[in-house]
Input
Amino acid sequence: GQQLNQSPQSMFIQEGEDVSMNCTSSSIFNTWLWYKQDPGEGPVLLIALYKAGELTSNGRLTAQFGITRKDSFLNISASIPSDVGIYFCAGFITGTASKLTFGTGTRLQVTL
Amino acid sequence: DAGVIQSPRHEVTEMGQEVTLRCKPISGHNSLFWYRQTMMRGLELLIYFNNNVPIDDSGMPEDRFSAKMPNASFSTLKIQPSEPRDSAVYFCASSFLKGGDTIYFGEGSWLTVV
Output
C-alpha cells in the first residue's frame, strides 16, 4: 500500500541529544498522527495534529503540522534510553480513517 | 481506561490450520480496523468496519481471510487455511470517527505459521 516518506530510517544518538524526524507526502492530509512502537508491542499514539501549522507538545516531544499539509515533523528533546523504538507518522483526510497512510518508520537507538 | 484488547498475543500453528484472532475495541468507538505488519510491507490495512458494518475490505489478501464484527464490542479475523506467508503481526485498532479522528492500536497478535 501507499506509504509516506519518513526520514531518517534509523538514528543512533547519545543520551541527552535532541532528535528530529520528518514525514513528507505527495498528498495533502488534514490529520497527522505520530506513533511509537516498542519491540513486541503495538503502536502507541504520541501526538495528534489537526490543523496546518499546528505545533503540539507532549512532554519532551514536539510535533508540527506543516503549512503545506504535506509534511510533519517530530522532535524529541534530551533523549533518554526509553526513547528507543520505532516512530511512525501517519496521515489521512479527516473522516476517512480507512485511508490512513503510514510512514516507513524511524528506528531510534539511544546510547548511554 | 482499557485500550484495544487482542487475543491471542502469540500463536504458532501449522500450515493448513484455521487461525482466529480476536479484538475488543475501546468502548464507545464506532470504527474498527484490522492491520497486518511485516518487515517487508510495513503496516497494511486489511479491513475497516464502521458501526459494525464492513466498509472497506480491499486490503484483505484473499478468500482465505475473513473478518466479522457481530457487535460493537467484538471482532474476529479468521484465516483458513493458514499458510507460512501469513506469518505477521496482526493489529486491531479502533477509533471514534467524528472529525479529529485518532486511532488507537492494540498490542497485536503475533502469528507464526510453520
Observations:
- Chain A is about 0% helix and 55% strand.
- The mean pLDDT of chain A is 91.
